[in-house]
């Protein structure tokens, strides 16, 4: 996988080094050379100086070959413009933007761009969305026994009922986000392409549920 990251602050650096550690290729864009220097000598990816929404800069960073693009600079407007350019002009499949103003998140979700609005959670969530690695848990009960996690589903789950997914994962669907709108589904609800499915599951079975979501239904062992 090849990932282009715009923004080389704390989140951008953390994301870049973690993706590279997983064996993926990374290109990082920032307007400040000193920010790029903080990636350190061990970083093997490409560093590009410039504005991340500039088409020439994006091209230099390798956006035409990118599997994913993450806009994680300190500016909301810069991030959303860059994300839209990556999605709409370069047809990058996986695009995500870091947004400080949570009130804007719903608008951007309706544009088909997933957003991250909290700094402590950002690196783990971005890693999960871009690579499918890690666990995208966002909430747990005070005892830590139950978690709510977003599943990145294999394409073959499309058309299957949520009851089949629940049976396979031993969880319950908490809610889905479809076309930017959240809803509480029924067991008869069928999964559609680009659905964001959030599952409540025992924490001890969380990783297994995530793994099941990544594989085709026919590959799930009874």
From TrEMBL:
Cite the RCK N-terminal domain residue spans from the record: 1-118
What the entry lists under PROSITE patterns is as follows:
RCK_C, RCK_N
Q: Which GO terms describe its molecular function?
A: monoatomic cation transmembrane transporter activity
Give every RCK C-terminal domain span: 136-215
A GO BP term, please? potassium ion transport
Q: Supply the Gene3D superfamilies for this chain.
A: NAD(P)-binding Rossmann-like Domain (3.40.50.720), Regulator of K+ conductance, C-terminal domain (3.30.70.1450)
UniProt cross-references to InterPro entries, sorted A to Z: NAD(P)-bd_dom_sf, RCK_C, RCK_C_sf, RCK_N, Trk_Ktr_HKT_K-transport
Task: Specify the protein name.
Answer: Trk system potassium uptake protein TrkA
Its encoding gene is what?
trkA_1
């Amino acid at each position: 996988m090849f990932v282009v990251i715009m923004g080389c602050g704390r989140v951008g650096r953390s994301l870049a080094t973690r993706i590279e550690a997983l064996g993926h290729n990374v290109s990082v864009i920032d307007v400040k050379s000193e920010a790029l220097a903080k990636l350190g000598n061990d970083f093997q990816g490409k560093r590009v100086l410039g504005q991340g929404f500039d088409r020439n800069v994006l091209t230099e960073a390798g956006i035409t070959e990118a599997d994913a693009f993450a806009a994680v600079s300190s500016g909301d407007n810069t991030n959303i413009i860059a994300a839209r350019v990556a999605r709409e002009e370069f047809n990058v499949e996986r695009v995500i933007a870091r947004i400080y103003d949570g009130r804007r998140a719903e608008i951007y979700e309706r544009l088909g761009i997933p957003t991250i609005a909290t700094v402590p959670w950002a690196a783990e969530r971005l890693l999960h969305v871009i690579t499918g690695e890690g666990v995208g848990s966002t909430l747990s009960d005070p005892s830590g026994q139950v978690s709510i996690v977003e599943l990145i589903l294999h394409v073959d789950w499309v058309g299957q009922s949520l009851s089949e997914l629940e049976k396979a994962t031993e969880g319950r669907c908490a809610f889905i986000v479809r076309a930017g709108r959240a809803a509480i589904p029924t067991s008869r609800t069928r999964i559609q392409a680009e659905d964001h499915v959030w599952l409540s599951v025992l924490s001890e079975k969380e990783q297994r549920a995530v793994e099941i979501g990544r594989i085709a239904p026919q590959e799930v062992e009874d």
